[in-house]
Amino acid sequence: MSAKTQRVLITGSASGLGRAMALRFASEGARVAVADVNDERAAETADEIVAAGGKALVIHCDITSDTSVNETVAAVKKAWRGLDVLVNNAGVAAAGTVTDTSMEDWSWMIDTNLLGAVRMCRAFLPMMQKQRSGYVINVASAAGIVQSPGMASYNVAKAGMIALSETLRNEVRRFGIGVTVVCPSFFATNLMESYRGPKSGVREMADKLMQRSRLDADDVADAVYRAMEKDELFVFAHNEARLAYHFKRLMPGVFYWSTERAAQKMFGDIVELEPTPRKRHG
To answer: Which CATH code for domain 3-239?
Structure first.
């Protein structure tokens, strides 16, 4: 599809990767809806979109609210009468093991990082199906492939985003709708502003890995745009995420052995998990 005529909505586009993707689409002349709960930052992104040669539409959108999502659909229909690209990017960060993460935080994570995308897909896909065209980009994470200890709820939500994307691709292909799922590793962003969990340990390590990344949000946004143009299901951006994906599929036994050792070495002084002897079967 031609980027020149695209109508694009990106959740969580007031900052970080969302803003970078908004500007990437805008550089191609697209009309971009900046959907976010932070109105001030959304307005700043809109100004940058216009400066980059695009057209901006600011929409206050809370992806955890059915009412807010429905209002977002109404705003898009009124302004554009349709949508070409939906980018489910909004998300939050958290750390904690399966057992020490509160049910409140589990619900918060799943509702935002997974069900938020489900709400947006349910709201906008009928529009795309009627058009017989469209594209959905879901932002997951390498955490959805390599599940390190101490990031339980985040891992589960991002793995769910991958499963959602694979399922969705099989369901909507016949309507001329494409799907891409983004699985980046660590890169500098403001995701940790929403962080819930231990004050040290996992958060400190995540901050360090973000700062060490050779890629930034603009690099990831460019990789996402190229993947959409090629109609690729997965986009990894980081080589380590791509290697992990193929390693896990081709050599699962070795993958789990190596990642278990690496994860326990990395998180051993952060996550207190008492090892239990493994029983032999048979």
So the answer is: 3.40.50.720
